Amino acid sequence: MPRPVKVLLVARVVNRVGAFSVPFLAALLAADYHAGLASAGVVAAFFGVASIPSRLVGGRLAAGLGRRRTIVAGLVGCALAQLGLAGAGSLPVAAGCAFALGLVFELYEPPSQALIAELAGPGGQERAFSLFNAALALGGIGAGLLAALLGRWDLRWLFVADAVSCLLCALLVRLAVPADTRPRDRDRTASAASPWRDPALLLMLALGTGYALLYLQIVTALPLSLPARGLHTADAGLLFTVSAAAVVAGQPLLRLRRIAALGTATGLALGHLLIAVGLLGYAAATTLPTAAAATILCALGELLVMGRAYGAVAALAPAGQADRYLAAFGTCWGFGGVAAPLVATQLLTHAGPVALWTTLAALSLTLTAAHLTLHRPAPTPELTPPS
């Protein structure tokens, strides 16, 4: 990988180590600002809604302001909002800071992903995005340990740690990523290209929303479902650590000839198939080792899906439009983030954990079939021999 890509990967590890505060947002509002659970949930939902336009604005700013400037501005904005949350003296101020955090939370994603796609080149995009996902997983291991330490002391310190990690990440990017250059002249067709009018991108967005809904429901439901299976809620932290470790340790598998030779559709389908098997494992698991085995299968599926999905979207983008395409595709996480908690809790409440995991496995199998059916290469037009 080129040096700037390595810098971005290291910066994201640093940022991810501190980025464990958002899951504790509702808990902070309830504990320190005496908000009811319903009020805390509404504020947390506002954060999720605000994060959807944040990614789209990030794509726009990257094209106009420059990628490095947008990344740095987004990270500094996150740090200021986090410090505001940590130091707020009242619930309204904390709620305003939470909404502001949502507005800047995703600004850096489109430009950083576009830089990776551009610097890695067509032949290295899939590998680079897989490493990007592994960097997040590696940072997530440290994030869980940091959250366990600081969260027992005072929840506000989680937001301070997150702010510090954002500033360190911004400093790394500012010092080591190449400076922004003037946007290259583009023809009118390229500048007018809209990802929302590209059928191939809209297809990837629909399938990506299905995956985001699947992934975020796993994250939401796993801690809630474990007690019904005879396990402790805190065991979810161990399972999340196992998942992150499997994503990191599994990176060499992507370099195996047979895995690397898989087409986009086949690789995505195989990844969703592994996730489906892992989810069925959750439905049957009654011990921590069996749940860990199911977690590893889901993590291997994630390993195959994440890099290929973002690589495929980057390949769809016309020259100079990667920021906007990746920003549009990234909204799938916002849509999934709003729906996943609602769907997962309803399934758990009314149907139970076995039905939940079986339903999610069926969704994953549906995505498997969709990738095999819909991702078909366009037929090569027959050339008429000259007369």
From TrEMBL:
Q: Does the keyword Transmembrane apply?
A: yes
Matching entries from PROSITE patterns are given as: MFS (PS50850)
Quote the Pfam families the UniProt record gives.
Answer: MFS_1 (PF07690)
Q: How does it sit in the membrane?
A: Multi-pass membrane protein
InterPro entries, A to Z: MFS, MFS_dom, MFS_trans_sf, MFS_Transporters
As for subcellular location, the record says:
Cell membrane
Domain of life from the UniProt record: Bacteria
- Give all residue intervals belonging to the Major facilitator superfamily (MFS) profile domain: 1-376
Predominant cellular place of this UniProt entry's protein: membrane
- Which controlled-vocabulary keywords does the entry list? Cell membrane, Membrane, Transmembrane, Transmembrane helix, Transport
Looking at the UniProt entry, the stretches that span the membrane are 7-31, 37-57, 69-85, 91-108, 129-151, 157-179, 200-224, 236-254, 261-285, 291-313, 325-348, 354-374
Record has Transcription regulation as a keyword: no
Q: What protein is this chain from?
A: MFS transporter
Biological classification of the source: Bacteria, Bacillati, Actinomycetota, Actinomycetes, Kitasatosporales
